[in-house]
Amino acid sequence: MLSLATDEVHIHLLRPELAKETDEKILDSAEQQRAQSFKFKKDRDLYVAAHVFLRQVLSRYAAVSKKDWQFVSNAYGKPAIANLSYGWLQFNLSHTHGRVACAVAHNRAVGIDVEQHRYLSELPLLCRSAFSSLEAENVLSAPHRDIQIQRFFSYWTLKEAYIKARGMGLSLPLQQFSFVQDTHQNWQLHYSPNFQDDGKNWQFSTCRLGRDHHLAYCVQTDDSTSSKALRVRVMEA
Ligand SMILES: CC(C)(COP(=O)(O)OP(=O)(O)OC[C@H]1O[C@@H](n2cnc3c(N)ncnc32)[C@H](O)[C@@H]1OP(=O)(O)O)[C@@H](O)C(=O)NCCC(=O)NCCS
């Protein structure tokens, strides 16, 4: 059994093509139905690998077998554990071709995003639709295409991890909050005056996973005056 201290966030990573266990039968009926709804086998396989992995990860923290986890979703679709006595185990899942990431934390809201690195021909359009003007300017003013793409995915994954931690999906206006790096290269979150903040404090970070993927997480911290960062542990399956 893995222990998860209250001041920790654990990030579990999987390369879905190397998944040892992909038995769809351990998924619940809603998951199996969703798996069947994918048109392409590669999408179905990724979904199944991610959801089997999520169940494996959760069972490392509690005496609940993989197939016995039950989930409930909020109004925006964010799933949480429904099993009695295990609500403290908070998680978030992200999957893209080649990578699955699952973050878990003890009684803290958490969000995670993993994205596949790719060439984006519509970069100005994407930046304008999803980023604040500050973020879009920072991406589009970079001197080299590779730097633009790197910055784009840093912002994209950070913003996605944040809205996933808040659990409100795209109902949060993406242009009204900005990620800004301070002089120590730490990311700070700035809100525009009419943005609906929920009063929580957050710790976040973004990184490249090899050449092909970008990852960011966002986890609720205790209070803005606390200088103590949560400990982050990354585990590769
Ligand atoms: C659904 C959404 C939460 C994430 O979508 P995504 O990035 O395509 O997918 P990810 O793989 O990272 O995450 C999917 C998982 O998040 C979880 N999830 C679903 N709704 C969620 C919500 N409201 N909040 C948090 N997590 C959620 C589920 O576990 C889901 O897994 P499943 O689809 O296999 O059931 C939402 O943020 C969205 O629609 N994003 C669209 C992308 C976009 O425009 N992003 C702008 C970023 S700047």
TrEMBL record:
Hydrolase recorded as keyword: no
GO cellular component labels: cytosol
Q: Which GO terms describe its biological process?
A: lysine biosynthetic process via aminoadipic acid
Cross-referenced Gene3D superfamilies? 4'-phosphopantetheinyl transferase domain
Pfam families xrefs: AASDHPPT_N, ACPS
**This protein's record includes keyword Mitochondrion:** no
Keywords, in A-Z order: Transferase
Q: Which residues form the 4'-phosphopantetheinyl transferase domain?
A: 109-218
Cite the 4'-phosphopantetheinyl transferase N-terminal domain residue spans from the record: 25-104
Q: Which GO terms describe its molecular function?
A: holo-[acyl-carrier-protein] synthase activity; magnesium ion binding
Q: Which family does it belong to?
A: Belongs to the P-Pant transferase superfamily. Gsp/Sfp/HetI/AcpT family.
Supply the name of the protein. 4'-phosphopantetheinyl transferase
Source organism per entry reads Crenothrix polyspora
Q: What is the lineage of its organism?
A: Bacteria, Pseudomonadati, Pseudomonadota, Gammaproteobacteria, Methylococcales
